[in-house]
Amino acid sequence: MIEFLSCRPNLEVGELAPAAAFLRDVLGFEVEVDEPEMGLLLLRRDAVGLALVRSASPGINATTAVYIGVTGVDDLHERCAARGAPVVTGLTDHPWGLRDFVVQMPGGHRLALGERITQPG
User: Fold this and answer.
1) 49 burial class (0-12, 13-18, 19+ CB within 10 angstroms)?
2) What's the CA gap between 121 and 96, in Å, rounded?
3) pLDDT by residue (tens digit) across 25-84?
4) Domains in the chain: boundaries
5) Are 41 and 51 in contact (CB under 8 A)?
6) I need a labelling partner for 97 at 20 to 30 A (CA). Which of 15, 33, 79, 119 fits?
7) pTM given for the model
8) Are the beta carbons of 80 and 87 closer than 8 angstroms?
9) CA end-to-end span of the chain, whole Å?
Protein backbone atom coordinates (compact mmCIF):
# COMPACT_ATOMS: atom_id res chain seq x y z
CA MET A 1 0.00 0.00 0.00
CA ILE A 2 1.27 3.47 -0.88
CA GLU A 3 0.49 6.32 1.50
CA PHE A 4 1.47 9.97 1.21
CA LEU A 5 2.37 11.19 4.69
CA SER A 6 3.17 14.86 4.45
CA CYS A 7 3.77 17.85 2.25
CA ARG A 8 6.14 20.73 2.93
CA PRO A 9 6.00 23.56 0.39
CA ASN A 10 9.24 25.50 -0.12
CA LEU A 11 8.57 29.24 -0.26
CA GLU A 12 11.33 31.38 -1.75
CA VAL A 13 11.85 34.71 0.02
CA GLY A 14 14.36 37.52 -0.27
CA GLU A 15 14.72 37.75 3.51
CA LEU A 16 14.07 34.93 5.95
CA ALA A 17 13.48 36.93 9.14
CA PRO A 18 10.30 38.88 8.19
CA ALA A 19 8.60 35.81 6.71
CA ALA A 20 9.58 33.65 9.69
CA ALA A 21 8.32 36.29 12.14
CA PHE A 22 4.97 36.39 10.33
CA LEU A 23 4.57 32.62 10.38
CA ARG A 24 5.65 32.45 14.03
CA ASP A 25 3.92 35.50 15.49
CA VAL A 26 0.72 35.61 13.42
CA LEU A 27 0.04 31.97 12.55
CA GLY A 28 1.78 30.24 15.47
CA PHE A 29 4.39 28.19 13.59
CA GLU A 30 7.58 27.09 15.37
CA VAL A 31 11.05 26.94 13.85
CA GLU A 32 12.30 23.35 13.64
CA VAL A 33 15.49 23.91 11.64
CA ASP A 34 17.45 27.14 11.17
CA GLU A 35 20.34 26.87 8.70
CA PRO A 36 21.40 30.48 8.01
CA GLU A 37 24.42 29.46 5.91
CA MET A 38 22.11 27.49 3.61
CA GLY A 39 19.41 30.17 3.72
CA LEU A 40 16.85 27.66 5.00
CA LEU A 41 14.24 27.63 7.75
CA LEU A 42 11.87 24.73 8.38
CA LEU A 43 8.76 25.61 10.35
CA ARG A 44 5.90 23.51 11.67
CA ARG A 45 2.52 23.94 13.26
CA ASP A 46 0.64 20.77 14.12
CA ALA A 47 0.79 18.54 10.98
CA VAL A 48 1.71 21.38 8.61
CA GLY A 49 5.29 22.07 7.59
CA LEU A 50 6.60 25.02 5.58
CA ALA A 51 10.11 25.77 4.40
CA LEU A 52 11.48 29.25 3.78
CA VAL A 53 14.35 29.34 1.31
CA ARG A 54 16.38 32.51 0.79
CA SER A 55 16.65 33.47 -2.88
CA ALA A 56 18.07 36.50 -4.69
CA SER A 57 15.07 36.41 -7.04
CA PRO A 58 12.21 34.64 -5.24
CA GLY A 59 9.43 33.14 -7.32
CA ILE A 60 6.06 34.40 -6.10
CA ASN A 61 2.81 32.83 -7.34
CA ALA A 62 0.21 35.18 -8.80
CA THR A 63 -2.39 33.27 -6.76
CA THR A 64 -1.98 31.41 -3.48
CA ALA A 65 1.24 29.51 -2.82
CA VAL A 66 -0.27 27.18 -0.23
CA TYR A 67 -3.73 26.10 0.92
CA ILE A 68 -3.71 25.10 4.59
CA GLY A 69 -6.68 23.26 6.07
CA VAL A 70 -7.51 24.45 9.59
CA THR A 71 -10.20 24.30 12.23
CA GLY A 72 -11.53 27.51 13.75
CA VAL A 73 -11.13 29.53 10.56
CA ASP A 74 -13.24 32.41 11.93
CA ASP A 75 -11.05 32.70 15.02
CA LEU A 76 -7.90 32.49 12.89
CA HIS A 77 -9.21 35.23 10.60
CA GLU A 78 -9.88 37.41 13.64
CA ARG A 79 -6.37 36.69 15.00
CA CYS A 80 -4.75 37.62 11.67
CA ALA A 81 -6.72 40.86 11.41
CA ALA A 82 -5.94 41.78 15.03
CA ARG A 83 -2.21 41.26 14.40
CA GLY A 84 -2.21 43.41 11.28
CA ALA A 85 -1.75 40.61 8.76
CA PRO A 86 -2.67 41.73 5.25
CA VAL A 87 -5.91 39.85 4.51
CA VAL A 88 -6.16 40.00 0.71
CA THR A 89 -9.36 37.95 0.44
CA GLY A 90 -11.83 37.99 3.31
CA LEU A 91 -13.75 35.04 4.68
CA THR A 92 -15.60 33.34 1.85
CA ASP A 93 -17.96 30.36 1.78
CA HIS A 94 -17.46 28.31 -1.38
CA PRO A 95 -20.05 26.04 -3.01
CA TRP A 96 -17.62 23.11 -2.72
CA GLY A 97 -17.94 23.20 1.08
CA LEU A 98 -14.97 25.27 2.24
CA ARG A 99 -14.81 28.56 4.16
CA ASP A 100 -11.50 30.34 3.78
CA PHE A 101 -9.52 33.56 3.56
CA VAL A 102 -6.16 34.58 2.11
CA VAL A 103 -3.32 36.43 3.85
CA GLN A 104 -0.16 37.82 2.33
CA MET A 105 3.08 37.24 4.18
CA PRO A 106 6.21 39.39 3.93
CA GLY A 107 7.89 38.67 0.63
CA GLY A 108 4.58 38.41 -1.22
CA HIS A 109 3.47 34.79 -0.84
CA ARG A 110 -0.24 34.31 -0.26
CA LEU A 111 -1.52 31.62 2.07
CA ALA A 112 -5.12 30.43 1.91
CA LEU A 113 -6.43 29.19 5.24
CA GLY A 114 -9.66 27.23 5.15
CA GLU A 115 -12.03 24.95 6.96
CA ARG A 116 -14.49 22.40 5.62
CA ILE A 117 -18.02 23.54 6.44
CA THR A 118 -20.01 20.93 4.47
CA GLN A 119 -19.19 17.61 2.90
CA PRO A 120 -18.73 17.68 -0.88
CA GLY A 121 -21.36 16.15 -3.13
Assistant:
1) middle
2) 8
3) 999 999 999 999 999 999 999 999 999 999 999 999 888 889 999 999 999 999 999 999
4) 10-54+63-116
5) yes
6) 79
7) 0.91
8) yes
9) 27
